[in-house]
Amino acid sequence: MTYIPPERDDALDQTRQLEFTPPPMPTTGDGGPVDPFAGQGPEAAAPAEPAATRDRVLFQFIWEAILLLLTLNALFMVYRDEDALFGDEFGTLVDALDPHALYLTPVLLAALAIGLSLRLGAVNLAVPAVAITVGWIAGPVDANLWVHAGFVAAAAVVAALVYVLLVAVFRVPPWFAGLALAAAFMASAQALERLSESRVADSVAMWDPPNGVYVFAGAAVLAVAGGLIGLVPGVRDGFSAVKRMADGGERGAGAVFLLLGGTVLSMLLAAGAGFLMFAYTLAPTTEPTSLGFGPYGFGSAGVDLQLLAFVAALLGGTSLWGRRGGVLGTVLAVLAVWAGMVLWNHDMTAAGEASWQDDYAPLIDVGILFVAVFVSFALDRLGQPKDAVDPDEGVYTQEMRPFEPTSNGPEGTGLFEPTLPDANAHQR
Q1: First to last CA, the chain
Q2: CA angle 321, 125, 236 (to 5 degrees)
Q3: Structure pTM?
Q4: What is the pLDDT of residue 279?
Q5: For residue 293, which of 227, 344, 257 has the smallest C-alpha distance?
Q6: Residues in the chain with pLDDT values less than 50
Q7: What is the C-alpha to C-alpha distance for residues 279 and 122, in angstroms, rounded to an integer?
Q8: CA Rg, the chain, in Å?
């Protein structure tokens, strides 16, 4: 007997492929997948903001401790050779401290001025030119030195305003703006000399030199106070904002005013250095004297004020890249450099002009500058905060969030309630 299957009824055919587009699978609020077998879980919490990172100033303090030991060692070497260094000229080291400290104060003020502009992230190369023009090139504009000091301060403020205008408004690179101002100061020397001759009828009565130790101590207190203010995180953040603006970034009102205030203070410090050199006749000398160090020396014994200011600021821990700096480092660096120059100039004078000390002295000065650059680089990298670990963007890293469907399952999702019996179980 042969079995003949019944004819297929297309209306009752359940084997055909259904044609439909499944809806998207539901997700949780944070974009994660749904677990249909778990109950409703808590909503995902918003990710917390990372804590603000701060500079690591510990390395700066460690370097200042090392620099303190080096400075004390250099000062001890000066003390050990005081008879050879100061015996014929001053008698003892105590007698020599007064004039040497007075001669060293303008160097410290110039280093503070260039260091402040470095921390702002807008280095002002006009700082040494202001000090040299006021101190040695331009004549006084009034016979009264206090009136002349007022003119000098006003000129420094005007120069600072021009600098900020060039950097913040016209977006001129800071180094070029400072170079242009330096050229302007040098070019105005002859005109200032004519103005001095027309206003000053009689000779100017110079002030009697004060106790140089007190003057240097006052400048050192100013340096320490500025360094302590620079440790405040908000002030450092402001320095970073100024640097971003100077590099062509966003120009905010706070950054502009901080640049203005810092530049005015920097120019006033430079003008103060020049005024001290003028008022107390602190000028270079050709005589073989222990006071002929740094900018006061001639030939191989002389060191340019700009080079000396950069060396002191960088050795003190000021960063070439802005923001970071020390507290007592610049003062210690100035003292250490002074001791080294006094010792070296004495040996160079004793050896004579044809000695190797005389030939290699400029190269040694440049070598010390490179050492200062390395110190600034190392402290800047060590002082940077640790990089915060940012979460991967676009990658789901949280655990699977549960999802509780409705009584009959979400409509159109194909999900089912696992606790209900299978509706087709009786057909199997």
Answers
A1: 29
A2: 35
A3: 0.79
A4: 93
A5: 344
A6: 49-50, 388-396
A7: 30
A8: 37
The C-alpha atoms of residue 319 and residue 186 are separated, in whole angstroms, by 28
C-beta separation of 74 from 340 below 8 A: yes
Tally the C-alpha atoms within 13 A of residue 161's C-alpha that lie toward its C-beta: 6
Residue 401's SS3 state is strand
Whole-number pLDDT of residue 392: 47
**What count of residues does the chain have?**
428
Q: How far is CA 381 from CA 6, 59, 269, 324, 398, in A?
A: 88, 10, 28, 10, 34
Contact 127, 267 (CB under 8 A): yes
- Provide the 8-state DSSP code for 295: G
The residue extents of the domains of the chain are: 58-383
Please give the Cα distance from 358 to 356 (Å, whole number).
5
Q: How far apart are CA 159 and CA 181, in angstroms?
A: 7
The two tokens of residue 66 are 């090392």
* Distance of alpha carbon 207 from alpha carbon 163, whole angstroms: 32
Distance in angstroms (rounded) separating the CA atoms of residues 218 and 73? 24
CA distances to 106, 134, 194, 261, 270 from 131, rounded to whole Å, are 8, 5, 19, 19, 5
Residue 320 identity (one-letter amino acid): L
Q: Which of 280, 341, 286 is nearest to 312 (CA)?
A: 341
- 264: enclosing H helix or E strand: helix 253-279
Q: What is the pLDDT of residues 270-296, one digit of tens each?
A: 999 999 999 999 999 888 889 999 999
CA–CA distance, 156 with 161 (Å, rounded to integer): 9
State residue 194's pLDDT score.
83
How far is it, in rounded angstroms, from Cα 64 to Cα 317? 8
Handedness of CA 286, 288, 292, 298 (dihedral sign): positive
Per-residue pLDDT at 352: 81
Q: Note the pLDDT of residue 425.
A: 52
- Tokens for 145, please give them: 């030195």
Written as six digits, the tokens of 83 are 């008879």
7-62 tens-digit pLDDT: 655 555 555 555 556 666 655 555 555 555 555 555 555 555 445 568 999 999 99
Answer yes or no: are the C-beta atoms of 326 and 384 closer than 8 Å: no
* Number of alpha carbons in the 13 Å side-chain half-sphere of residue 404: 6
Contact 330, 226 (CB under 8 A): no
Query: How many other C-beta atoms are found inside a 10 Å radius of the C-beta of residue 369?
Result: 17
